[in-house]
Q: What sequence folds into this?
């Protein structure tokens, strides 16, 4: 809005509550084949070791604008297609060309205060190669910015595509953040909780939701909210949305001209984030779905995020059945109110609930919709 091109797109995203974007600064040999920092498109060592300073200066203007607007920059440094994986030398070799690529990007953009550095989309690198790439990036980066690597599609917490993440990040805490591609919506919270237990000091980030061809469209936003958004957030994770493969005018992963095609999702994701920032000590909370019983099992059932005895956030993707919350961990009086995840507003009167046992949650404003319930100890 009020701007054109990429600056206008970033302004639009920030105005609608989006606070992170991921992008590939080098996608030659991959799906898009239209972005590189080099002086030439020629496939030779001279071109791959000489960088276009004018282009990098323009990139810096764009990324600086994003940072000023509070948008995290997620650098995806390699693509899974073989032509891109080996563009700067053998896939598992930390070549001079690969080191120079890292150095040039970190020298110009590593000082930004909100960045994430992803070694590869759908990584095919060996364990040792991932560690070597991470160590070199960690040596270059001026701050303790998270470093990650992306998985191939994951179905559940036992999927073998999670094994490398569990093994490497479980033994090396200096990565800082996961990058989990997940295809089974109903297992999202189980994956987050499994990884949070194994990697207690690592930020659990979920991305590339759904099958490659689908992702988020303008027609499945309600389903994504009910199956994924609060499942991930109320399990202690974070989420990045993926837009699938779609032709224009809708557009998707590789061709998109209008971020407004998913505007409702950007806004509803922002509602969820602002709810957590405004009302929850989320850094002290943990998933506690076992405290909720009786609710509908549609969309995988309810989600509970709790600081036991103090504050509880409950998400009901289907509020048509009477739900019971276990408040045995807290005595005294609690207050409860319904938050509308579609509008970002509280839509009910405050209700008092007794602590020390099981309580039936008050009836929602509209049982046919999904709702968030905030239950907090009265001071």
A:
């Amino acid at each position: 809005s009020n701007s054109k091109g990429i600056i206008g797109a970033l302004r639009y995203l920030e105005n609608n509550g989006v606070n992170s974007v991921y992008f590939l600064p080098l996608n030659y040999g991959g799906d898009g084949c239209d972005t590189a920092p080099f002086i030439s498109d020629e496939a030779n060592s001279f071109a791959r070791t000489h960088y276009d300073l004018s282009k990098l200066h323009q990139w810096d203007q764009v990324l600086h604008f994003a940072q000023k607007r509070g948008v995290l920059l997620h650098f995806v440094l390699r693509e899974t297609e073989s032509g891109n994986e080996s563009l700067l030398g053998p896939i598992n070799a930390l070549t001079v060309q690969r080191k120079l690529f890292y150095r040039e990007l970190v020298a110009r953009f590593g000082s930004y205060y909100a960045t994430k550095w992803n070694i590869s989309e759908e990584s095919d690198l060996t364990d040792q190669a991932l560690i070597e790439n991470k160590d070199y990036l960690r040596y270059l980066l001026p701050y303790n910015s998270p470093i990650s690597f992306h998985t191939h599609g994951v179905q559940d917490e036992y999927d073998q595509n999670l094994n490398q993440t569990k093994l490497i990040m479980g033994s090396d805490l200096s990565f800082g953040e996961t990058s989990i591609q997940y295809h089974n919506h109903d297992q999202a919270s189980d994956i987050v909780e499994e990884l949070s237990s194994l990697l207690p000091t690592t930020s659990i980030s979920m991305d590339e939701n759904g099958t490659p061809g689908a992702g988020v469209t303008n027609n499945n936003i309600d389903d994504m909210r009910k199956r994924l958004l609060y499942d991930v957030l109320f399990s202690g994770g974070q989420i990045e949305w993926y837009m699938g493969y779609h032709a224009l005018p809708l557009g998707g992963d590789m061709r998109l001209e209008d971020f407004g095609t998913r505007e409702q999702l950007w806004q509803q994701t922002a509602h969820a984030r602002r709810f957590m920032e405004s009302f929850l000590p989320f850094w002290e909370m943990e998933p506690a779905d076992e405290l909720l019983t009786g609710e509908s099992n549609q969309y995988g059932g309810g989600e509970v995020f709790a600081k036991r005895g103090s504050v509880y956030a409950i998400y009901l993707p289907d509020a048509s059945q009477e739900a019971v919350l276990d408040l045995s961990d807290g005595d005294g009086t609690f207050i409860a109110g319904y938050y509308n995840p579609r509008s970002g507003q509280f839509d009910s009167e405050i209700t008092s609930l007794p602590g020390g046992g099981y309580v039936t949650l008050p009836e929602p404003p509209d049982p046919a919709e999904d709702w968030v319930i905030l239950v907090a100890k009265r001071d």
The CA atoms of residues 27 and 300 lie 37 Å apart. The mean pLDDT is 94. The longest strand covers residues 333-340. The chain is about 30% helix and 15% strand.
